[in-house]
Amino acid sequence: MNVHDYLYYVILPVLILSVLLIFIRFLKGPSLSDRVVSLDLLITTGIGIIAVYSIITDQPTFLDIALILALIAFLGTVAFAFFIEKIKK
């Protein structure tokens, strides 16, 4: 079993299953905080999928896209934390 077989048959199914479970948590989340955390986790899992796709297709430019998506997700999380802090005061 080489690296590409491992990525196809092990890593991608695990990532896809995790996306489905996280999306269910996103829909059922009882509070806004739960939904924001699950959205952040969805973006992080999407970054993992983009990284695996970049390795499989041997296109390193997709890693730049993953990096930009990670920066946007981080800024969104910081903005939400700032919003929660303003609400509590």
Automatic annotation (TrEMBL):
Keywords: Antiport, Cell membrane, Ion transport, Membrane, Transmembrane, Transmembrane helix, Transport. InterPro entries: MrpF/PhaF-like. The keyword Ligase does not apply. It holds the Pfam family MrpF_PhaF. It comes from the Bacteria. Its main location: membrane. The chain crosses the membrane at residues 6-24, 36-56, 62-84. Signal peptide: none annotated. It is a multi-pass membrane protein. It is found in: Cell membrane. Belongs to the CPA3 antiporters (TC 2.A.63) subunit F family. NCBIfam families: PRK12599.1-2. This is Cation:proton antiporter. It comes from Rufibacter roseus.
